[in-house]
Amino acid sequence: MARFKSIAPQELTDNTFKLIGSDWGLVTAGDSESFNTMTISWGGLGVLWNKPVAFTFIRPQRYTFEFLEKKGVFTISFFDEGYRKALGLCGSKSGRDVDKVRETGLTPAFTRDGAPYFEEARLVLVCKKLYAQSFGEESVIENAAVLPNYNGDDWHKMYIGEILEVLKK
Question: Which residues, 6+ apart, have CB-to-CB distance to 6 below 8 Å?
């Protein structure tokens, strides 16, 4: 299996609109004893508070939410197109009901901090939580753009993480 090399966040050359919005990724949190992963297609990369950051959005009903709430470090893994089926499963099945690692055949690996990611990824962002805030209807400015994404009390929580390390194949 190809080895990862660590690069600076400033060395990323991927189009982040394609990377997150079209290619998707897996956000994973927990540790070697227990973790969960889920597919994301909302988020971004940038600079905030003079730090390179990644941000993503998770609904409280998702099993991965529990792990993100408990742990200070999470990862976002990106894959080649050949893993689309695995990403589809991780976005449509709950880790409460299905062993996603067994079902997808993905191989867990762990950072120095113990955060889980997957050996098959081509790119991994290792992130330390800096900020989290729940969305709510009271903050919506453009109803027509936002409200169709929500049914009642299922508003996302935004997580902003400092990118501590970028692992690239």
Answer: 165, 166, 167, 168
Dihedral of CA 104/84/92/129: which sign?
positive
Query: Within its chain, how far is the Cα of 30 from the centroid?
Result: 12
* Tokens of residue 32, six digits: 């070697």
Token pair for 73: 């470090």
Structure token pair of residue 55 = 């941000």
Contact 30, 67 (CB under 8 A): yes
Q: Is 30 exposed, middle or buried (0-12, 13-18, 19+ CB in 10 A)?
A: buried
DSSP letters for 78-99: E--GGGHHHHHHHHHS-TTTS-
**Burial of 1 (C-beta count, 10 Å sphere; 0-12/13-18/19+):** exposed
| DSSP assignment of 133-155 | EE--GGG-S-HHHHGGG--SS--
Which residue numbers in the chain have pLDDT < 70?
1-2
- Can you tell me which residue has the tokens 């792990």? 67
pLDDT digits (tens, 9 = 90+) for 114-140: 999 999 999 999 999 999 999 988 899
User: Distance (Å, rounded) from C-alpha 136 to C-alpha 36?
Assistant: 25
Q: Say if CB 44 and CB 54 are below 8 A apart.
A: yes
Q: pLDDT at position 1, please?
A: 55
